[in-house]
Inverse folding.
């Protein structure tokens, strides 16, 4: 009993001492085994920061902006009206040809990936730059050149001259990251070089609308303007992400590109200066319960083909609108994001097996991946009001299609207004929706719309299949 009491007091004393050390800011090395359920506390962060800092760089760029911008007009515009320069009489030597080009400076971060001088950063840091200066942690400064950029993922590879001062970071495995793992961010927020912040992985696989290949790591490690392009590191000092985006109105919400995806792109940039991706030539979207019912799909997961680009690989391979893709080269596909990523990672010209469900039956087609080719076709435009449903409609024209983000050869009836409280509004129809089918019958004009509606008796079901601007298919159910 005395031995047990002694151990209990010793445990309490140990915890009390550890609490004092943590609250007073004294570094405590703690390694807790996962099996015992204790909290993982990062080991000495100051040592880790000291180790990786030499590989993190500050990037300063200069861009030429034309037209003078708001600042130029503010100082040289006439506040009393007119276009004359009010300083002309005082300073006749001033030119009178209007706004001039001006130089805009911007800041960012990056990190060295090898001692040959290659540095990873964000595309938006160096895009359009006339001059790029790289400053190391020892304050030595170098001119840099752009090796390659990929706007779709906001990644860029630049290079400085090799020298003995260069220290490279090791890359880790972003796939093995878990929500709750500790991470470190280093960069130059607001131009404050070599700033270190720590936090955890808040989420993975975030889609924030930044581009077609969104797959971000979310972290609460403080990231601010100027951090762009800097590394997100695990507790072993390995790069697991590239800090890229923030939510302006949010605090403790930052986003990083997973390093596993980034280094594949960086490898292509290093080799050829550009990134080539496989292209299927389709519009896609995730399945909804309404779409499953409309197309009579029993499949639990997969990706619906909502659009086919004429003459592109999917069209040539026999894929059709309404098909549900469930695998690419035997690899399962559960979401549109997964399909986009899998196709993008395949080389142009590769013969690819696409497994899909069509009318309830599984089917495999062979598609040779390539690039998209755009064409524009004309469609007439007239307008009609359908009072029974509370809709104002018009046939889609190419200019409107382009403005709303529909495909160039889209056909259908465009919803230009929806009456408040009407049947259509209650069924979920919105202004800008494109009605392409009524009860599974295609519709491409006002005349066809009226003809199909006339065949439906009062009290019978009406089902619209619609495309939403820059979105996917939507089904609206109502009765006449």
């Amino acid at each position: 009993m005395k031995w047990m009491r002694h151990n209990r007091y010793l445990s309490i004393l140990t915890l009390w001492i550890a609490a004092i050390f943590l609250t007073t800011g004294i570094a405590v090395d703690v390694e807790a085994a996962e099996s015992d359920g204790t909290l993982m506390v990062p080991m000495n962060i100051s040592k880790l920061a000291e180790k990786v800092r030499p590989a993190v760089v500050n990037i300063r760029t200069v861009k030429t902006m034309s037209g003078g911008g708001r600042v130029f007009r503010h100082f040289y515009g006439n506040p009393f009206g007119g276009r004359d320069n009010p300083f002309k009489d005082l300073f006749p030597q001033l030119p009178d040809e209007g706004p001039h080009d001006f130089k805009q400076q911007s800041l960012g971060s990056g990190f060295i990936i090898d001692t040959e001088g290659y540095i990873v950063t964000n595309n938006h840091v160096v895009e359009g730059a006339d001059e790029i200066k790289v400053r190391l942690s020892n304050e030595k400064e170098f001119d840099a050149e752009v090796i390659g950029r990929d706007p779709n993922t906001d990644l860029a590879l630049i290079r400085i001259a090799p020298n003995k001062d260069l220290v490279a970071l090791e890359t880790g495995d972003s796939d093995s990251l878990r929500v709750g793992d500790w991470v470190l961010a280093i960069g130059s927020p607001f131009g404050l070089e070599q700033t270190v912040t720590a936090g955890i992985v808040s989420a993975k696989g975030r889609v924030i609308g930044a581009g077609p290949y969104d797959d971000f790591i979310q972290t609460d490690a403080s990231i601010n303007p100027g951090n762009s392009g800097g590394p997100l590191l695990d507790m072993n000092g390995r790069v697991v992400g590239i800090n890229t985006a923030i939510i302006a109105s949010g605090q403790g919400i930052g986003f990083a590109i997973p390093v596993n995806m980034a280094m594949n792109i960086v490898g292509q940039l290093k080799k050829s200066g550009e990134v080539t991706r496989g292209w299927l030539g389709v519009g896609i979207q995730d399945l909804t319960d309404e779409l499953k019912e409309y197309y009579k799909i029993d499949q639990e997961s997969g990706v619906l083909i909502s659009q086919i680009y004429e003459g592109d690989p999917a069209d040539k391979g026999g894929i059709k609108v309404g098909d549900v893709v469930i695998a690419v080269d035997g690899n399962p596909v559960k979401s549109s994001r997964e399909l986009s990523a899998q196709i993008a990672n395949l080389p142009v010209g590769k013969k690819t097996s696409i497994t899909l469900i069509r009318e309830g039956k599984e089917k495999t087609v062979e598609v040779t991946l390539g690039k998209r080719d755009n064409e524009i076709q004309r469609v007439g435009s007239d307008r009609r009001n359908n009072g029974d449903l509370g809709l104002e409609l018009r046939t889609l024209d190419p200019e409107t299609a382009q403005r709303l983000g529909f495909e160039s050869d889209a056909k259908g009836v465009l919803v230009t207004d929806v009456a408040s409280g009407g049947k259509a509004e209650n069924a979920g129809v919105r202004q800008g929706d494109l009605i392409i089918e009524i009860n599974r019958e295609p519709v491409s004009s006002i005349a066809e719309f009226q003809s199909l509606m006339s065949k439906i008796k009062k009290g019978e079901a009406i089902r619209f299949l619609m495309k939403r601007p820059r979105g996917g298919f939507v089904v609206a159910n109502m009765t006449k």
Observations:
- The chain has three domains: 44-66+101-275, 282-368, 383-479.
